[in-house]
């Protein structure tokens, strides 16, 4: 019985969401609509980072790198052929290809996932803060490569004039998919494996959990969704530059996961909304009053306060009670 | 590619390395005593650089006074960072301390942007320091030699302090075993604070040197020295002061030789190269050249 | 000299000491025996300030005619200052410091150079091997030598009450005999000793009184000769001899 009630709650939420999207598109102005789109993308980023950091306990600062990979791949694939030859020198196979949005996003995400696999195999042998620094290194290396691989990425100028394909009708379903996949993972035996690795490695090993494979999987899945988010981002801003995928962005997404509660999907969801709205609110403020940097300062301050006074964040690693079915508590 | 060119590169590498060693020493001291990466260490270098700029160019203060103020400022910032971010994190998981120090770093950078704007400023030492000398086919500026000499003096000073003084003994004991150190009557809060103060003072002075060497400073400049000090410390064996010194020189030499000996196309990859080296070392030789296996603090 | 009144101690979520009271009289050697996990180490760590009791009092009277101080809320550093010295489980030698430095750090709170030199000489007389190895790293010593270093280091602080956590652990019988003889000698010179031991035979032989700790509670106490005769104690801790 509870399983049905559970499904009903989710179905209601999803339909409600669809209703809200329709409402937003028909009432709200362009500017606010774009903010809602950004919020949606940040939700995807936070929830996917939660899989890597929260479920498996891997502290990864490399998320923006996966975003960048996904974003650039998607952009190159959706770029009209004529423009491609103007800006880039690509392999003839790519140069003559133009794909619709959906396959481009999937391929972008897949490329990010494959990169995660390749990078993860050596790097995930590190632990704790060493892993964090290594992922930071990965981020910087990717940034440097993008800046220098002009023929494919146009270097620091980036690609612009991308088709504005991202709309709320694209973002919303991906948000739902990301949350759904997260939820399924968390409450599956596989997810319990991941969480066990995070809680107590020794005990997990004794139970036969393959630590390494679990870690790699967490990284790859998180990377896939980050890649998709990157593709959505690129076609929202209609441009993609290496500067967008910086350590500061990595920090911001980490703040969302930590403040929401590392391991909690609802937590990442809420915190992503709060912080992306905050960032968007601060942007015009900073420009008007010439107080650049104040938004980041406040975010950093909030993080430190949370770490000191409520280190488990909003929800700890749990989900709020109403959403849980009886047998998955 | 003749011997003169190589000799020049080696001298350049040593000068650069002595600066890296300065920052790495402070970093390693702090890591050794609390087993946490102080991500904000590089930003103390930035603060030191801007203090120097302000005192020199705006107030026209004499050099010894500037050095003193910078040392003090660095120490104070270090104490603030310890009290504000690290002391509350004691006992928390390793990664939590890391995020906290990352947050402090971002705060400092953005405070810099807020009050100083992101514009790079020119750092011009008085002319007599810019004078170039030639010795045995190798050329260097007075300021470069000054950097190396003062760095070496400070290194010796630090090693003496750590090994021959009562405070140094307390620092080494605390670094090895906090509980037993407490049982000796050592006030660990004060000892840790002193470590932060000294390490950060060194970082501040390194900021003065950094500005003198590269001629330009901006609020975001802390990232590079922070990163390099970490890499240097890891190369030499994190937690070990002689290791940090060794690692600093190795890194300085490697960087200069990498840029000097490889074709110019690759020089843009300098940062990536540094990180790549770091990851390699963490994977292959995690204890560095001189390091011991430091266990996590429980 | 030391009176522990009904302390309750938690280590994380575990309830390790469930209302323990005990006394150590001035000039005595008191032993605390019990199996692994009974709470003996937690007891000592609570006394020396590394652990904090949730409730209860620890009354310490360093001077015979002085006041009694409740040290249950005091920091470890300040407790050392009152002449209470804890020789921890596993010895706690600083392996990176030399033998001499280990001894000097024991007297960290003593800033009088002359007194320090005198104390150093005294300790080296009691434990000549330490003088011989004074420049070697603490970690390079054998188990028995490390125990001597630990006790020597404790003596450097001129303790009035010395608490030792399993001094005989991992040491051969001859060394243990030697060690305990030295402890008795220190005791006759005025140092009160509280001793935690798994080796109940040795402990009961040298101590004046003893307490038996089981699962966080004191189950037996009394003069050590009586406990050594007690049926239950014999069966549980003395190998049924």
Largest sheet of chain C: 6 strands, mixed
Low-confidence stretches of chain B: none
The helix/strand series of chain C, from N terminus to C terminus, equals: EEEHEEHEHHHHEHEHEEHH
Q: Radius of gyration of chain C, rounded?
A: 17 Å
CATH architecture of chain B: Orthogonal Bundle
Write the layout of secondary structure elements.
The complex is a heterotrimer of chains A (329), B (298) and C (241).
Chain A: H1 2-27, H2 30-55, H3 63-78, H4 81-87, H5 92-95, H6 101-123, H7 128-148, H8 150-153, E1 159-160, H9 168-186, H10 189-199, H11 201-206, H12 211-237, E2 239-240, H13 247-260, H14 265-289, H15 294-309
Antiparallel strand pairs in A: 1-2
Chain B: H1 3-34, H2 41-58, H3 63-86, H4 94-116, E1 121-122, H5 127-130, E2 132-135, E3 138-141, H6 142-164, H7 166-176, H8 178-183, H9 188-214, E4 216-217, H10 223-236, H11 241-261, H12 270-284
Antiparallel strand pairs in B: 1-4, 2-3
Chain C: E1 2-11, E2 14-24, E3 29-33, H1 40-48, E4 55-60, E5 69-70, H2 76-81, E6 84-87, H3 99-106, H4 113-126, H5 128-132, H6 143-155, E7 161-165, H7 173-188, E8 192-197, H8 200-206, E9 209-214, E10 217-223, H9 224-229, H10 231-237
Helix pairs in contact in C: 3-6
Any overview of this molecule?
The complex is a heterotrimer of chains A (329), B (298) and C (241). Chain A has helices at 2-27, 30-55, 63-78, 81-87, 92-95, 101-123, 128-148, 150-153, 168-186, 189-199, 201-206, 211-237, 247-260, 265-289, 294-309, and strands at 159-160, 239-240. Chain A is mostly helical and 329 residues long. A two-stranded antiparallel ribbon of chain A has the order 1-2. Chain A is globular, with a radius of gyration of 20 Å. Chain B is mostly helical. Chain B has a two-stranded antiparallel ribbon with strand order 1-4. In chain B, strand 2 and strand 3 (138-141) form a beta hairpin. Chain C is of the alpha/beta class. Chain C has helices at 40-48, 76-81, 99-106, 113-126, 128-132, 143-155, 173-188, 200-206, 224-229, 231-237; strands spanning 2-11, 14-24, 29-33, 55-60, 69-70, 84-87, 161-165, 192-197, 209-214, 217-223. A 6-stranded mixed sheet of chain C has the order 6-7-8-3-9-10, with helices on both faces. The two termini of chain C are 34 Å apart. Chains in contact: A-B, B-C.
